[in-house]
Amino acid sequence: MMLIPTGLLADGVVKGHVYDENKQPVIGANVYWEGTQEGTTTDLQGFFTLKSKGPEANLVTSYIGYQTVAVAVKDSKEPLVIVLKGEVSLDEVVVSERKVATISSRTSVLQTQKITYDELCRAACCNLAESFETNPSVDVSYSDASTGARQIKLLGLSGTYVQMLTENYPNFRGASSLYGLDYVPGAWMESIQVSKGTSSVKNGYEALAGQINVEFKKPQTADIFSANLFASDAGRYEASTDASWHINDKLSTGLLVHYSNDKMSHDDNGDGFLDTPLKEQVNLMNRWSYNSGSYVAQYGGRFLHESRIGGQDTHHGGMVNPYVIDLNTNRAELFTKQAYILDKEKVESVALILSGSYHEQKSMYDITPYNIYQNNVYASLMYEKEFSHAHSLSTGLSLNYDGFNENLVLNNRWTPYNRSEVVSGAYAQYTYNLNDKFILLAGIRADYSEKYDFFVTPRVHIKYNPFDWFHVRASVGKGYRTANVLAENNFLLASSRKMRIAENLDQEEAWNTGLNLSFYIPIAGKELTLNGEWYYTDFNKQVVVDVDSNPHEVSFYNLEGSSYSNSFQLEATYPFFRGFTLTAAYRYTDAQTDYRNEAGLIYRMKKPLVSDYKGLLTASYQTPLKKWQFDVTSQFNGGGRMPLPDTTHPLWDSKFKDYTVVNAQVTRFFRRWSVYVGSENLFDFTQDTPIIDASNPRGDNFDGSMIYGPVHGRKIYTGIRFNIARD
Question: Where in the cell does this protein reside (predicted)?
């Protein structure tokens, strides 16, 4: 996260980093001993390890588009830092190579995918919610048709079971979980890391289905200045800028500013309700970085204000006493990360992470007020040491505090839900590495919650490479989370459903098991990448969100019986010719839960509003010299189950059909800037009747939460990106 590994020759192993002339890590560079086939490739940080060949041996480093470098490795303990220079340009000949947009790490023991900034630029990507359009694993959908709340789905489970991190500390929990995907501007992001299944115990116990970590632009490596201006035919306008200053060789700072305005009314289906809410957002961030070699520190702060208005379209039709949903949010964050390197040779270090946030959301769902105020404090103290290439240890302490002041008019009564939870914990994680062929990562943490007492989280990950072209990963582990039912589901207030919340809700608990097979097959001078994976999540305890037992209610109660999710995925990527890459993926999901009906009987059903399968086909072509880029993504979404309708007066179908969404974008590059034009939902697919009984929003049948597909039609957009790069 912040700790900087260094290269050295010790214990019969050579370690080091490979950088380009701009001091950026070179990912996937070939590092091998001269005259042999013994070698490896660099990871996401440009880092490599390789068994030593003895003194005076030559280490060769090569990468397409760069000059090959040979270094004589002597018996020295000095770090190895290898800098690659670009190929020499001849008269009227330019050597160029397209950057990798999405990187599946070959060296990480975890099944991790890195979405780079170049991948984010393949779509409009105005915020985090829109950054997964080209990703086959992560689905983002609307939770309802009135508030614009969006949720992630991973492995067939809702985003509440995915641990959200920003720069490796937990974020967007509780009060911010519903709208947090809209709080991260796309132009601010440096990359996104997506890992499936249980992750490292370092970051806590909450990752039941996976983990998503957002890395913001760093002042020490970011452009001097960059800007992104965006506009769509739907009346949405956005501006994002960031600038960085190197005050001296140790201290740097960065300022990031974002503004968006989406206040044009749209009611294309004529149901009297806005297709998407009217929104305005201001987002500011300032961060500082200090690096003296052995001491590294970061400090930062963020502020966000957002207003969104949904409900009936008051700009058309002259409605009297319209049904309106009004949400106003303010959020402030502070964080610091500090690390001290005790021993560079043994990669021994200690680090401290502190973060705090305040979140307030004041809401009116027609005549029903709902307000929530959340304070969060997080602290993590970590110690890491690499005893040798084969053995390393990470251990630490953590503390998390959540304080909620939450109130709602529930069933005609003003109901407060004030509560707090303090969780303190400790963890230890051991890594065994056998010549980079077999890696074992075993971790365990013990936590104490003042609400749920002690609980233990074990996790094990294994990576085995029997051949360079075949990698196997397996994982098994446990995860826990505290359900904040109102904070995470208040979008259901945009309906006439009554809320039934049981007392003494359990802490949710689940086991996750995963298997991943990766093949790297050379075909016609290029590499075909194949991935096959299976993940199974089995809940021991769960808070069931039941919208089936009664079509006029939503009930929250403890699981009685079984709840699980099976997810199978196949993915293939191949660069058919220079500048062109095609990715195809297919995923099948079987997620089922035992529900309890009003008579107290238990019955098992598939989770509602989850597609049985998803297919993805994404193609990207970049012309020589990077003048033009063409991107097309097709999402093929299978059908699924709707919540059960009223048997005597059904107002919606029991199932939804499959549908396809196509997005496309064309980008023209210039020296310092680029222009892009694109379309979302190119063939204008929208869900029929997204709002049930829209003509009578205060009646007993009104429901805006029956959403399985797009609620808005085709959008055309354009934008300009400009940057002044740092040499």
Answer: Cell outer membrane
Across the strands, what pairs with 111?
none
Tell me the residue ranges of DSSP E strands in 482-552: 498-501, 508-523, 526-541, 543-546
Q: For the residues of 596-654, what is the DSSP string, one character each?
A: E-TTS-EEEEEPTT--SEEEEEEEEEE-GGG-EEEEEEEEEE--EEPPPPPSSS--S-S
609 has pLDDT over 60: yes
Of 83-87, 159-163, 212-216, 653-657, the least confident: 83-87
| Residue 9 pLDDT greater than 50, yes or no | no
Rounded distance, CA 500 to CA 657, Å? 30
Mean pLDDT in the chain? Answer: 90
SS3 state of residue 168: coil
| CA–CA dist 77, 705 (Å, integer) | 62
What pLDDT shows up at residue 576?
A: 92
| Whether pLDDT at 255 is above 80 | yes
Q: What is the pLDDT of residue 78?
A: 64
**What is the Cα–Cα distance from 633 to 617, expressed in whole angstroms?**
6
- Render pLDDT for 265-279 as a digit per residue (tens, 0 to 9): 988 888 999 999 999
Q: What's the sign of the alpha-carbon dihedral 473, 474, 480, 483?
A: positive
Q: How far is CA 306 from CA 183, 280, 559, in A?
A: 9, 6, 36
Give the span between the Cα atoms of 34 and 36, in whole angstroms.
6
Q: Please tell me the predicted confidence (pLDDT) of residue 99.
A: 56
Q: 486: how many CB neighbours lie within 10 A of its CB?
A: 23
The predicted pLDDT at position 2 comes to 36
Cβ partners under 8 Å of residue 535, min gap 6: 155, 196, 197, 209, 512, 513, 514, 515, 565, 566, 567
Residue 70 predicted with pLDDT over 90? no
What is the largest distance, in Å, between two alpha-carbon atoms of the chain?
86
The span from the CA of 637 to the CA of 596, in Å, is: 29
Token code pair at residue 118: 């170049």
Q: What structural domains does the chain harbor?
A: 13-83 (2.60.40.1120), 216-465+480-724 (2.40.170.20)
Which residue in this structure is represented by tokens 């990527």?
A: 573
The 10 Å CB-count burial string (b at 16+, else e) for 207-239 is bbbbbbbbbbbebbbbbeebbbebebebebebb
Q: Which of 684, 706, 686, 702 is nearest to 694 (CA)?
A: 702
Tokens of 622: 């970049």
Enumerate the β-bridge partners of residue 716.
679
- Helix, strand or coil for residue 62? strand
Contact 439, 109 (CB under 8 A): yes
pLDDT of residue 552: 94
Is residue 20 a contact partner of residue 42, using CB atoms and an 8 Å limit?
no
Contacts of 412 (CB under 8 A, 6+ apart): none
Query: How sure is the predictor about 411, in pLDDT bands with cuts at 50, 70 and 90?
Result: low
349 has pLDDT over 70? yes
Model-wide pTM > 0.90: no
Better-scored residue on pLDDT, 240 or 87: 240
Say if strands 39-41 and 47-51 run parallel, antiparallel, or are unpaired.
Answer: unpaired
Strands 348-365, 368-386: pairing kind: antiparallel
Average pLDDT over residues 589-600: 92
Amino acid at 520: Y
The torsion defined by the Cα of 603, 604, 610 and 616, in degrees rounded to 10, comes to -160
Distance between CA 10 and CA 364 in Å, rounded?
Answer: 64
- Cβ neighbours of 706 (radius 10 Å): 23
